[in-house]
């Protein structure tokens, strides 16, 4: 049987290079293309050499559409605008679009929903098994503990991260809100500064730290009167996300179009 042909978007980026590595070490998939934004200094370079796995004979292009027509899936950890533009090409090509990009707002998500009528979109703020398991545990803890237990989500990432709260923090906040049976949008407190007044019961708070080379750390704190439960995850290597993304692409191959999550891929939706 022939391999699943995968493209990597943003192939010169931190995650792009990890994705090329993950593809090169996975049976049943092959790198059929790699691209960067027009003007990128990476254009023309070999994607395998950039990723440190040796030459793969795939030069970095700036023409995603010509790659999509020859591919079965695209792995995309770029920027919200790049992801939305790519979703239209993925829909035209009816291929699998695995989206790790974070910082998407409601208008971006609406466009991804439209693309998912034709493409298999698998999107998650975190593609690791550990974080998706953590989300299931947070949902259960939030359901078991009453609203007098305050929920706060703390995250730390490297100094180059551009969005806050992280996609993972929001995913964990959503899990807590689901457990509580409330809407995160209506109960999130995404930052605090100055004379904020006392904490409002039932809200879910977020705090973001940035510094150094931290790959990604998340703690969900459930604070009761006189005791605290802390559930957390520490990412030590970007390969956990890259391997998850490759797994998602394989899972999505020949599936019916739709907007899926990593919990669907991992069979964690009912947990
Ligand atoms: N869901 C998950 O499991 C994870 C998600 N992420 C998310 O992935 C995203 C990328 O993170 P990271 O790899 O650290 O970021 P980087 O900035 O290192 O990589 C992004 C790459 O995308 C490129 N790019 C920008 N615009 C385009 C475009 N129009 N077409 C093609 N390529 C483009 C950038 O190029 P240039 O620098 O030249 O602009 C860069 O090379 C972030 O949103 C991050 O939060 C990260 C890790 C895990
Ligand atoms: O930008 C990153 O690096 C990461 N982004 C994702 C997020 O926003 O949660 C996932 C991971 O934590 C690393």
UniProtKB/TrEMBL annotation:
The active site is at residues 157, 161. (S)-2,3,4,5-tetrahydrodipicolinate binds at residues 158, 167-168. One of its GO terms (cellular component) is cytosol. It holds the Pfam family DapB_N. Keywords: Amino-acid biosynthesis, Cytoplasm, Diaminopimelate biosynthesis, Lysine biosynthesis, NAD, NADP, Oxidoreductase. It is found in: Cytoplasm. NADP(+) binds at residue 37. The keyword NADP applies. Residues 130-266 form the Dihydrodipicolinate reductase C-terminal domain. Its EC number is 1.17.1.8. Pathway: Amino-acid biosynthesis; L-lysine biosynthesis via DAP pathway; (S)-tetrahydrodipicolinate from L-aspartate: step 4/4. One of its GO terms (molecular function) is oxidoreductase activity, acting on CH or CH2 groups, NAD or NADP as acceptor. It catalyses: (S)-2,3,4,5-tetrahydrodipicolinate + NAD(+) + H2O = (2S,4S)-4-hydroxy-2,3,4,5-tetrahydrodipicolinate + NADH + H(+); (S)-2,3,4,5-tetrahydrodipicolinate + NADP(+) + H2O = (2S,4S)-4-hydroxy-2,3,4,5-tetrahydrodipicolinate + NADPH + H(+). Residues 4-127 form the Dihydrodipicolinate reductase N-terminal domain. Transmembrane segments: none annotated. NAD(+) binds at residues 10-15, 36, 100-102, 124-127. GO terms for biological process: diaminopimelate biosynthetic process; lysine biosynthetic process via diaminopimelate. Homotetramer. This is 4-hydroxy-tetrahydrodipicolinate reductase. The gene is dapB.
């Amino acid at each position: 049987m022939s391999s699943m042909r995968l493209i990597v978007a943003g192939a010169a980026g931190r995650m792009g290079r990890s994705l090329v590595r993950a593809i090169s070490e996975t049976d049943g998939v092959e790198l059929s293309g790699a691209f960067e934004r027009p003007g990128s200094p990476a254009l023309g370079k070999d994607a395998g050499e950039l990723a440190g796995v040796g030459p793969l004979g795939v030069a970095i292009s700036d023409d995603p559409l010509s790659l999509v027509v020859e591919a079965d899936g695209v792995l995309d950890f770029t920027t919200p605008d790049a992801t939305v533009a790519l979703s239209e090409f993925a829909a035209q090509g009816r291929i699998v679009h695995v989206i790790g990009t974070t910082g998407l707002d409601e208008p971006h998500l609406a466009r991804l929903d439209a693309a998912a009528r034709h493409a298999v979109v698998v999107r998650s703020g975190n593609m690791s098994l550990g974080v998706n398991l953590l989300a299931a545990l947070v949902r259960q803890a939030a359901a078991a503990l009453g609203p007098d237990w305050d929920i706060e989500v703390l995250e730390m990432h490297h100094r180059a991260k551009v969005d806050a709260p992280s996609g993972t923090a929001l995913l964990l906040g959503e899990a807590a809100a689901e457990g509580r049976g409330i809407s995160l949008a209506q109960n999130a407190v995404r930052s605090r500064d100055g004379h904020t007044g006392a904490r409002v019961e039932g809200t879910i708070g977020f705090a973001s730290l940035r510094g150094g080379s931290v790959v990604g750390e998340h703690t969900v704190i459930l604070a009761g009167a006189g005791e605290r439960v802390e559930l957390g995850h520490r990412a030590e290597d970007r390969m956990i996300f890259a391997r998850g993304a490759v797994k998602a692409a394989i899972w999505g191959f020949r599936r019916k179009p739709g907007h899926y999550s990593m919990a669907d891929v991992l069979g964690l939706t009912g947990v």
